[in-house]
Write the structure tokens for this entry.
Amino acid sequence: MEYSILRNLIIEIPQMPGNFAKVASVIGAEGGDIGDIETLKIGTHTTVRDISVQFENKEHVERVVDKIRALGDGIVVHAISDDVMKAHEGGKIHMSSRRPVRSLGDLRRVYTPGVANICEIIHQDPEQADYFTSIGNTVAIVTDGTAILGLGNIGPVAGMPVMEGKAVLFDQFVGISGVPILLDTSDPDEVVETVKHIHQAYGGILLEDIGSPHCFEIEERLKKELDIPVMHDDQHGTAVVTLAAILSACRTAGVDLGKAKVGQIGLGAAGLAICKMLMEYGVEEMYGSDLNAAAKDRLRESGGTVIESINELMEKSDIVVATTGVQGLIKKEMVREGQIILALSNPNPEIAPDDALEAGAAFAADGRLVNNVLGFPGIFRGALNARAKAITYPMLLAAAEAIVDSTKPGDLVPHPLDPNVHVNVTEAVERVAGDGQLD
Ligand SMILES: NC(=O)c1ccc[n+]([C@@H]2O[C@H](COP(=O)([O-])OP(=O)(O)OC[C@H]3O[C@@H](n4cnc5c(N)ncnc54)[C@H](O)[C@@H]3O)[C@@H](O)[C@H]2O)c1
Ligand SMILES: O=C(O)C[C@H](O)C(=O)O
Ligand SMILES: [Mg+2]
């Protein structure tokens, strides 16, 4: 028997002798190979176990689980967990202490009464909070759940795994504590008011997966009203990484970006910011398509040209970027020979890179590769290091250039696990932020 997949069966079994054996026998009789068994919870009448089992394929998993369910007698299969589910069990993040408390002395130092002295120091000189608290190293990851990846408005709680994921990246790539903040309102007045009231615990605010158009007003107002860095990741983190990928592709293909015709499909949070960044960079012919009239108006107001049909945009553009959230929107027959295609929607792109390349594209990538993970960690690390009060266009441009400089010849962007890219983005942003503050 060839086993190709591993699943963990989370099974609740009444505490009767022989019950676990029944489950194990069914798995064995059906050809499943039992590995580790972990007891997750011992209740008064039942025990919940995590049984790891090797299966041949998905159908095999279903067959075995059906047989276990058919046992009855109170035996319940709660979940069939895979690697991704396993990685999420109990959540992906945890607030932990930097100081051990092993003695009464420790307790007195980190807590009462020692802590009172530090409170007084900060009370007399609020700037000391930078030195004596974690505020300057902590970023709030704020979402209202209205544009979670390309899954749409699924709410902030369903979006929490994404926010935890961003916190994991902050921690591991640049040592920032990211704290998810889930808002149960999308009303710009309420969002702005709420973030204003809680902002003092944070050195920066990362807005994440907040849909358009309300994301524009929310970010603009928060930037104006707060004196800490605020950035909407889906707008500017994405624009930075997209510019970097396009610059690398142009460099390899010998194309002058300023003279290239660039088409953007989807003019929401990510799309409009990408258009603005490319135009700021010098792209003269910036085309855009969207289904939404207001989104198209916003592109016109920013200096871009609206093209109603995606077919026409594909025909006219040397470089195409798509951020619609619609899987498979770009068909192979729409691809032009030699085009650069970045289909950035997550979790599924508008066209798979292999399909785009097969159809004649010179470069193609999806949102897993060209992803704002290459930008937001270093942008915030650099801004916090410089004690910047805002994230400015020159800082974003410096981040894009640092990503290009960290890219190996022939690649579009660096590998996200390459620590150099996050260090380089941090240093570039910090340098520019420092320059800005001297002016
Ligand atoms: N790779 C990355 O780093 C990255 C970063 C940000 C966003 N994204 C992806 O981009 C997508 C959009 O995110 P967003 O935050 O901009 O969302 P958004 O809701 O603000 O924007 C989506 C836009 O696409 C438009 N649209 C939808 N269907 C369309 C169609 N058939 N034709 C033309 N336009 C269409 C909508 O009208 C809207 O304006 C998501 O899938 C997200 O995962 C990827
Ligand atoms: O979360 C990601 O993978 C990138 C981006 O922020 C998105 O919303 O798709
Ligand atoms: Mg996002």
Summary: The first helix runs from residue 19 to 29. Residues 208-209, 233-234 surround magnesium ion (ligand 3) (CB under 6 Å). The domain at 5-88 is CATH 3.30.70.260 (Alpha-Beta Plaits).
